[in-house]
């Protein structure tokens, strides 16, 4: 199975900050990498797929990059509604696997 | 509107069985890859099972031999039959559509399964 490791596990940031979350795969997954946002009590929401493609309706302050084993999710200017937990997920092979999550909290 | 609506969760004793349903609208379940993903209380996301459009099925090792994924074309509904339930199966269960390049683009609201005596 492919292991996905996110860092950091949590971070504190202020509105307007630039935030970067990294995700590392235990083997190459090409660009088969997605990012999700989850708020308490809600289902995850797809933000980015194919490592860097923004899902329809997602604000342009979210961006993704990377290929192979190393990936990054960047929020260019953190907004109040962005405080949530973020997960990466590989779809290169089955079983699909998720990172452990990164909780973005208000500083 | 494209949406998924799960049902069937509840409190069940260890060793018991439960069947979850996921009704789709706005698209055809049998034409898509459909998965179940679960989330234990306070924990991260764990993929459970997938059924491909061609009918092939796959399971996480943690549920293999106990859970069965299936679909009903006439009802446009996805199912998860869960047998021999254990305390560690306690979680919110989500169904999700997997769209090429295999991202989970549509999620249900989730249904809670609690395994406890």
Question: Can you put this structure into words, describing what you see?
Answer:
The complex is a heterodimer of chains A (107) and B (117). By secondary structure, chain A is mainly beta. Chain A is built from no helices and eleven strands. In chain A, the strands form two sheets. In chain A, strands 2, 4, 5, 6, 9, 10 and 11 form a seven-stranded mixed sheet that branches. A four-stranded antiparallel sheet of chain A has the order 1-3-8-7, with no helix packed on it. By secondary structure, chain B is mainly β. Helices cover 0% and strands 55% of the residues of chain B. Chain B has strands at residues 3-7, 10-12, 18-25, 33-39, 45-51, 57-59, 67-72, 77-82, 91-99, 103-107, 111-115. In chain B, 39% of the residues are buried. Classes of the chains: A mainly beta (107), B mainly beta (117). The A-B interface holds A 31-32, 34, 36, 38, 43-46, 49-50, 55, 87, 89, 91, 94-101 and B 35, 37, 44-47, 50, 58, 60-61, 94, 98, 101-105, 107-110.
């Amino acid at each position: 199975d492919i292991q996905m490791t996110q860092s950091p596990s949590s971070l504190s940031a202020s509105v307007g900050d630039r935030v970067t979350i990294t995700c590392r795969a235990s083997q190459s997954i090409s660009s088969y990498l997605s990012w999700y946002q989850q708020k308490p009590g809600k289902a995850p929401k797809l933000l980015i797929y194919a490592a860097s493609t923004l899902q329809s309706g997602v604000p342009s302050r979210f961006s993704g990059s990377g290929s192979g084993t190393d990936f990054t999710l960047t929020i260019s200017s953190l907004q109040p509604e962005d405080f949530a937990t973020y997960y990466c997920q590989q779809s290169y092979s089955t079983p699909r696997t998720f990172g452990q999550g990164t909780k973005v909290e208000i500083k | 509107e494209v949406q998924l609506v799960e049902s069937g969760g509840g409190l069940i004793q260890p060793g018991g069985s439960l069947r979850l349903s996921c009704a789709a609208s706005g698209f055809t379940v049998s034409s898509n890859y459909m998965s179940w993903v679960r989330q234990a209380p306070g924990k991260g996301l764990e993929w459970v099972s997938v059924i491909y459009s061609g009918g092939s099925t796959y399971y996480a090792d943690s549920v293999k031999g106990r859970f069965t994924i299936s679909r009903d074309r006439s009802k446009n509904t996805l199912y998860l039959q869960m047998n021999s339930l254990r305390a560690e199966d306690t979680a919110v269960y989500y169904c999700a559509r997997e769209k090429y390049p295999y991202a989970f683009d549509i999620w249900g609201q989730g249904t809670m399964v609690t395994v406890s005596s």
